Every structure is written in C-alpha cells, then in structure tokens.
C-alpha cells in the first residue's frame, strides 16, 4: 500500500464546499445578514400591528375620539402605554434597568401615568384620560383591559415578593379605584369608581364600594365599557 503524502492543494480542494468550487460565494456572513434583515423587518411589522391594535381599541372605547390621527397625537393614555412597552423592553436587557427607569420617569412627567418598567401589560390596554394612574412593579395586566384616571394597582407589602395585583382579560377599572396587594382579578370583571379591592374577584363579577362588594350582572346585559358604578 502506498504511503506517499497527499498533495496539500488537492486535500484542501476536497474539503472545500461544492458551492465554493462552483463559484457560488454564499458566505455565512451574508446569510446571517439576510436573516438579521428578515428578523428586523418582522419586528417592525409586529410593532406596527400592535400600534394599530392600540389605536383601534382607543377608538372603540373613547366616545370623545374624533379620528385615529387625533388619538395618536393627543391620547396620553396611549402615549403612556407605548412608553411603557419601550421601558419594559429595556428593563429586560442586561444593564437596561437604569435607562428603563429614566424612560419611565420621563413618560410619567409627560403623561401623568406611572407604570413600573417591570410590570407586565397585555395587548390593547387602554387608559382613558391617564392622569394619576399608578401600576406597580409586580403587577400583571391581561388583554383588552381598560382603566380610568386615578386608578392604582398597588402593593401592601415592603418585601421583594409578588405584591401587586394580577388582572385578567377584558377588565374595566373605574375612576379612582384602588386594587391593592397580590389579588387575582378574573376575566370580564368590572370594578366601580372609587372602590377598594383587597380580595380576589371571580370572573364576571362587578365589584363596588369600600371594601368592594361583589355582584353578578345578568348575561347579555350591559356591555363591558359601561361604568360599573351604576350597580351601586
């Protein structure tokens, strides 16, 4: 058996991918650039869809809204939500917590709404009028939730634990209401103006008063955007 050394050039050619031998120079860096471009374009599309969702939700829930352009330019509630989404994204990045807090402070100064960057906010969240809304660090809010001005989703503990409310989907919280502690608010709940909630509320209930008392409206009755204070 021959033990002669193989030609180095022939060996390198044998290991070279066929695409490169044929002149198809698709380098890994080029493929990575294309994937990055596609991912960036997908992110922009998703962001545009979410913004459109927020605007549509505001138009449906605010009878004073004249046009989509007016809502985009003048709604402090929407501006607060959009600012929070940016702050929340920063909060999740390494070294992003201080910039996130600074951004949240700027949003609070501009809109009167204070949302901690760590709070988790669902889709189509709408704050009517804005001013005076406070949402704490460990709060979690579902989709299609609407709150009025002066609402607090606050805590009752100084410990670094889950200390703020968890709010389900399609919940309406009236002006000046206080929801305090790690309480669970079910889906389709309505909380009346100036109510104080310190206990869990099951899905479909209406909570009014201090402390809040529960009622269960008839099915097929009033829509979810009507002020729940009418049940008082």
Strand order in the sheet with the most strands: 3-6-9-12-14-15
Radius of gyration: 26 Å
- Report the helical percentage: 25-40%
The chain-level structural class is alpha/beta
The CATH architecture can be given as 3 Solenoid
Assembly status: single chain
Mean pLDDT: 83
Task: Please identify which CATH superfamily we are dealing with.
Answer: Hexapeptide repeat proteins
Largest sheet: 6 strands, mixed
Strand portion: 5-15%
| CATH topology value | UDP N-Acetylglucosamine Acyltransferase, domain 1
Rounded to the nearest angstrom, the distance between the terminal CA atoms is 100 Å
**Low-confidence runs of at least 5 consecutive residues:** 12-24
Q: SSE order, as H and E?
A: HHHHHHEEEEEEEEEEEEEEE
Helical region count? 6
Q: Which shape, going by the Cα principal axes?
A: globular
CATH class label: Mainly Beta
Protein name: Serine acetyltransferase
Family: Belongs to the transferase hexapeptide repeat family.
Organism: Intrasporangium chromatireducens Q5-1
InterPro entries: Hexapep, Hexapep_transf_CS, LbH_SAT, Ser_AcTrfase_N_sf, Ser_O-AcTrfase, Serine_acetyltransferase, Trimer_LpxA-like_sf
């Amino acid at each position: 058996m021959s033990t002669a050394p193989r030609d180095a050039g022939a060996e390198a050619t044998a290991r070279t991918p066929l695409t490169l031998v044929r002149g198809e120079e698709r380098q890994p860096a080029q493929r990575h650039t294309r994937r990055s471009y596609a991912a960036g374009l997908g992110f922009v599309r998703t962001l545009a869809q979410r913004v459109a969702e927020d605007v549509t939700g505001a138009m449906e829930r605010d009878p004073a809204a004249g046009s989509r352009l007016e809502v985009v330019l003048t709604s402090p509630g929407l501006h607060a939500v959009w600012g929070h989404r940016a702050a929340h994204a920063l909060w999740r990045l390494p070294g992003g917590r201080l910039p996130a807090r600074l951004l949240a402070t700027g949003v609070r100064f501009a809109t009167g709404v204070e949302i901690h960057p760590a709070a988790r906010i669902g889709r189509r969240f709408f704050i009517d009028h804005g001013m005076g809304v406070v949402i704490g660090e460990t709060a979690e809010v579902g989709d299609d939730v609407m709150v009025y001005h002066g609402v607090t989703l606050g805590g009752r503990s100084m410990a670094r634990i889950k200390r703020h409310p968890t709010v389900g989907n399609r919940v309406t919280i009236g002006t000046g209401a206080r929801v305090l502690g790690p309480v669970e608010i079910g889906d389709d709940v309505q909380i009346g103006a100036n109510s104080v909630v310190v206990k869990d509320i099951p899905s479909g209930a209406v909570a009014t008063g201090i402390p809040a008392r529960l009622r269960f409206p008839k099915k097929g009755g009033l829509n979810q955007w009507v002020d729940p204070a009418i049940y008082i």
